[in-house]
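Researcher: Quick test of sequence recovery. Tokens follow.
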């Protein structure tokens, strides 16, 4: 019985070790039309990935027919420590382009996400806020 209890404790510790501080649901900034997305971010292997969870119009109404629901928007993001993530990719649905990407967590509820070109010399970014 002690071995079983000890194994359960170690399994719980291992599971919490794999959870990253950026894991969760994030609200993007509004786009050109005023709409925004909720992006679910979590671990995918040793990297961090994000998927479009929900879309909203400028009035905050959920857009159930949004064509990009469930699509991956962030992938291969490598945790660098200290709330920094690098060497990933981000897909910008409004431009239908993929960029090199990096992210930076400020506290627990603010995430700066950037898509870059020209070897990281030119970047466009947004500040996302944690939903949960």
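Model:
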């Amino acid at each position: 019985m002690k071995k079983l209890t000890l194994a359960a404790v170690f399994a719980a510790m291992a599971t919490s070790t794999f959870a990253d501080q950026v894991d969760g649901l994030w609200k993007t900034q509004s786009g050109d039309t005023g709409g925004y997305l909720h992006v679910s971010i979590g671990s995918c292997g040793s990297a961090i990935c994000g998927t479009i969870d929900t879309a909203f119009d400028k009035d905050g109404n959920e857009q159930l027919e949004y064509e990009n629901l469930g699509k991956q928007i962030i992938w291969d993001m490598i945790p660098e420590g200290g709330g920094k993530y690098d060497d990933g990719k981000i897909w910008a649905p409004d431009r239908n382009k993929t960029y090199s990407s990096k992210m930076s967590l400020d506290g627990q509820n603010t995430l700066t996400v950037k898509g870059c070109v020209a070897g990281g010399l030119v970047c466009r970014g947004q500040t996302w806020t944690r939903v949960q």
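The longest strand covers residues 47-56.
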